[in-house]
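Before we proceed, please read the two lines closing this message. Tell me what the C-alpha cell row says about the fold.
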Amino acid sequence: MKFIKKSYVALILLIMYAPVAILMVYSFNDSKLPIWKGFTLKWYEEIFRDYSIQQAFYNTILVAVISSIIATIIGTLAAVGIEKMIGWKKSLMMNITYIPLLSSEIVTGVSLMLLFSALNLPLGITTLILSHITFSIPYVILSIMPKLKQLNYNTYEAALDLGATPWYAFKKVILPEILPGVLAGLFIAFTLSIDDFIISFFNTGAGVDTLSIKVYSMTRKGVAPTINAISTIMFATIIIVLITSNVMASRKQKKLNKINKRI
C-alpha cells in the first residue's frame, strides 16, 4: 500500500515537473531544434544582449518589488483589522477577501482595465503596479490570519496598560509574533507578480512589457531557445524566493518556540 502511495506521488510530480525539466535542459542545447547537439550558454548570453528583454526584466522586478511591499503593508493592516472584528462583520470581510481568489484572472484583469479606463488613467507602469497590488492583497491577508489567531492579545493589552502607544505596542508585541506570516505573504506576492501574465496583459500600456508578456509575444513568432532560457531564469528565481521564504519563516518560528519554552 505504501509503495502504491509513493508511486502515485512520484507520478504526479513527474507529470508536473517533467515539462519544466525538459525546458531547462533545452535552454542549454546548442541547437534551435528540439534535438540535443551539445551544451552551450549562448541563449543566456543572447538574453543579456537583447535590450527589449533587459527592459522587460527590469519592469518585472520593479513591479514585483513595489507591488509586493505595498500589498504586504496594506494586507498586514487589513488582517489585523479583520481579526479584531466579531460576528457577521468578520465573516463578511473574510468572504470579500476570498472573492478575488475564486474569480477567474481574466475577470479580474478586464475589471481592473475597465476601472482604469473609467478613471481616465492611462495604461502603463502605474496601472500595472496598481493591478498587481490589488490581486496580491488577499494572499497576504490569508498568510497572516493564521498567525493572528495564535496571538495572545493579553500581552498587547499589558503593553498598553504599561503606557505604550497602540503603534509602539503593535510594533514591539504583535509584529514580531506575526512576522513569519508577513514574510510569507511578502514572498507570495512577489512570486505571483513575477509569474502573472493575464492581469498584466490587460493592464499594461504600449512599450511596457514584463517577462511573461515578452515571452508570449516571442512565442507567437515561434518557440526560440531564448524563451527556454528566460523561462528557466524565471522558474529558478521563483524557486529561490520560495525556499528563502520557507527557511526564514521556519527559523523565525523556531526562535519563537524557544522563547516560549523559556517563558
